[in-house]
Amino acid sequence: MNGGPPSAAPQAIMPVNGALREVPPSSDSAPAEFYLTDRLPHAMVLDALPYVDPLPTEQQQQVQQLLQQEMAAIARESGGPDKLPDYLSDLPLPQTPVLDDVETMLGKEMARKAKGDPIPELDMSKYTSFSVPSGSKATDVKAWEKTVTTCQQLLQHAATAHINLELMNAHAAASWQRHLTNLTQTKDRLTAATKRRTEEENSICKTRKVQQVEASGTLKQLEQTAQQYKNNNASIIEALGPLTAEVMDLKAKCRIRGILPEYAEEDEFDSEAWLEAVNTTG
């Protein structure tokens, strides 16, 4: 299996324009670029174009069996299903400075998620109720100022909610109608795009079908021509049978009488070639 650099010479791996670049620890030569697929045993299979025709139902089971056999072969080559190769082990982790910074909102949320802490609930008390200072705080000016601020916030929240209700009564129907219109337009656009893609696929399938039909006609014509040649050869061989026997008989008689020409002696009958021709055309 294509592996990474040997353990005796560790190399750094840097992403460069979609490819990965191996950089020796101390080398002035230009680093060699490679793609992750180059490390796969059968990377050339990934360049195969998809087949646009739908998979027949009777072949789905066969395809699943082929996939299972391939997975079993990979596991067998790796020494077991628990020892499958990790093709990403040599690749560096992506840099995420925003997520790694605990001072940012996303960083804090990622840290909370890593600890398994629940999401803190929103404090809605300032929008729903307030308390009047009492007891020792009844004469506390700051406590009363805080209470007044809370009351003002509640009044502002109620006023905003009232304005929102009035706006909803005045514009909700038209806004909802525009939303439905946008959804309808989006649906029509996606439907048209789907139809266009389907027509393109059908066009590809039709073109391939026409090419297959034309190729089938050419193959049939060539097959008929080959069969015609075979029949002609068979007829010729059949006609040559008596003539060959007659020639052999005449050669034998001339040889007995000693009048067979020298060139006729060299023209010997090849019985093996004759039998091969008969079997081929038979």
UniProtKB/TrEMBL annotation:
Q: Which Pfam families does the UniProt record give?
A: BCAS2
Q: Which family does it belong to?
A: Belongs to the SPF27 family.
Recorded GO cellular component terms are:
catalytic step 2 spliceosome; precatalytic spliceosome; Prp19 complex
Primary localization: nucleus
User: A GO BP term, please?
Assistant: RNA splicing
- Protein name according to UniProt: Pre-mRNA-splicing factor SPF27-like protein, related
Where in the cell is the protein located? Answer: Nucleus
